[in-house]
Amino acid sequence: MRSANAPWRISLTAFVALFLATPKLAHAYVDPGTGSMLWQIMAAAAIGSLFYVRRVFTWMRNHCVFQSCRATGYLFATLFALIASPLMVMLFSRHPLPRFNDIFLIGIILTAYLFTWDSALYLLAIGVGVTAWLLPPAGSFAISGADAWFRLLSFAAVSMLAITIITRLKSRRPQVEPSSRPELLSHSATAGAD
Predict the structure, then answer these.
(1) Which of 117, 115, 91, 113 is nearest to 102 (CA)?
(2) Would you say residue 15 lies in a domain?
(3) Which residues are CB-contacts of 51 (< 8 A; sequence separation ≥ 6)?
(4) Are 66 and 92 in contact (CB under 8 A)?
(5) Helix, strand, or coil here: 168?
(6) Are 146 and 154 in contact (CB under 8 A)?
(7) What pTM did the predictor assign?
(8) Domain range for residue 109?
């Protein structure tokens, strides 16, 4: 049995739903640091996840046709460029931010650290091309203005400096294989017996 108040309740519910669904001007405060904080969280998550990429490429090198670190480095640089280039063009095609090519700088540093310097130079060449494409006048490789040339040249110089420093630090690091140190193997075997 229906109640006599049922049509009234339905009408009231429809009115409240319609009232809540209509947009109103919001005179609220939005914290300007929130967007920056979210951007930093996303960037940190992306950069942190890139350090696990080495495991994937090491597995690919061991199980696929890529037996050299150089070939794996070129594959990593190519995949990074295929992901970063459209992302940068989509995000920064209208108004490039002052440090928009830091996405490529991160990839160059990771490539030099994880693989070889020549694959990092390969990624640098791609990064310079994408940067030249995005700088004014956007959509062409014609760079106009001293500030655009400064941005392009400073990006290239900082990248070259990072590649050089990382390569030198890697060459000074001793490369010790675990199988070449029998005292570690015998110590670990006796430690497990305790």
Answers:
(1) 91
(2) no
(3) 110
(4) no
(5) helix
(6) no
(7) 0.58
(8) 35-171
Instruction: State the Cα–Cα distance between residues 176 and 30, nearest whole angstrom.
Output: 54
Whether residue 112 is contained in a domain is answered as yes
Contact 130, 98 (CB under 8 A): no
Any domain includes 187: no
Query: DSSP H helical segments within the chain, as ranges?
Result: 6-21, 32-50, 53-63, 69-92, 102-114, 117-134, 146-172, 182-193
Angstrom distance (rounded) from CA 68 to CA 73: 9
Structure tokens at 17: 């739903």
pLDDT digits (tens, 9 = 90+) for 40-86: 787 788 777 767 766 776 676 676 665 677 877 888 888 888 888 88
Q: Tell me how crowded residue 80 is: count the other CB atoms within 10 A of its CB.
A: 23
